[in-house]
């Protein structure tokens, strides 16, 4: 066994800085009312001693936990298999870390998990919540509202009950879909199919609307609902080929779906893009650049979406008591999309 050095105490910090314990506590825990020269001495002592503040004591002063819940309304099997979530979490984590906040990840597998998340948020463990991948019948928004936790949503919320003050970050899903389908039409494709995402999510519904904006009289047989997964893309592509074997283009609602569609087309002997042109949505590089052929897709900045979500929430929480200034009231943000051309269309 080895002896461990005792952790430096607040009393040691105060002694090193030549101030009272109360003064050291106010500086360390984010209080105000301390003259700047004393603040500098205490901070120097903290650095020299390697003192780590007690979070419980700090929270009593700041009324903040410096922790944010990230709630993803999907099972863990989906979250850890889809690079979309990794990119969004990376953006969130970078922004929270830059502001010395801890990320607490909460996933929902079923109704029991919804109740657990609601209880956790209501228990005062975090300062706010970032919530995304909601479905229309999801009880999470109501539970969060009941908990009274400041929240920013990823994606345009789908409810229509007149709630005001809802803040969200989204991409121009409808506009991006229009651009994709217009590109396919510009290539001379006339029998353009669409593999949707789950239509109880606003991103998928908006992309379907964008498809219909261009293909006003589209054959209903050329639209198949899927689930944003490669396996779902395979099933949908097989169904489309049975319904309309003469199709000459596919707009898939995300890159994973497009990857599944490409596999089926290759198995059926359809050349891409000669026989069937394919476009996805997301531009997730681990997927889009490694499909065969590389995927033409609509790019949305997923990592930036996560960063903006965290930034808007921190702004909504407002400054800590020791901070200066007044927080701006955040408003929702819709990021632009761009078409990235590769070999598939």
What do you see in this structure?
With 345 residues, this protein is α/β, with parallel strands linked by helices. Helix content is 44%, strand content 15%. It has helices at residues 10-17, 21-28, 36-49, 55-62, 76-79, 83-98, 111-122, 140-147, 173-186, 202-214, 230-243, 255-267, 285-288, 302-317, and strands at 67-72, 102-107, 128-132, 151-154, 168-171, 192-196, 223-225, 249-252, 277-282, 296-299, 333-335, 338-340. The chain has a 6-stranded parallel β-sheet, sandwiched between helices. Helix 8 links the parallel strand 3 and strand 4. The protein is elongated, with a radius of gyration of 25 Å. The model is unreliable at 321-327 (pLDDT under 50).
Which secondary structure elements does this structure contain, and how are they paired or packed?
Layout: H1 10-17, H2 21-28, H3 36-49, H4 55-62, E1 67-72, H5 76-79, H6 83-98, E2 102-107, H7 111-122, E3 128-132, H8 140-147, E4 151-154, E5 168-171, H9 173-186, E6 192-196, H10 202-214, E7 223-225, H11 230-243, E8 249-252, H12 255-267, E9 277-282, H13 285-288, E10 296-299, H14 302-317, E11 333-335, E12 338-340
Parallel strand pairs: 1-2, 1-3, 3-4, 4-5, 5-11, 6-7, 6-8, 8-9, 9-10
Antiparallel strand pairs: 10-12
Helix pairs in contact: 1-2, 1-3, 2-3, 6-14, 7-8, 9-10, 11-12
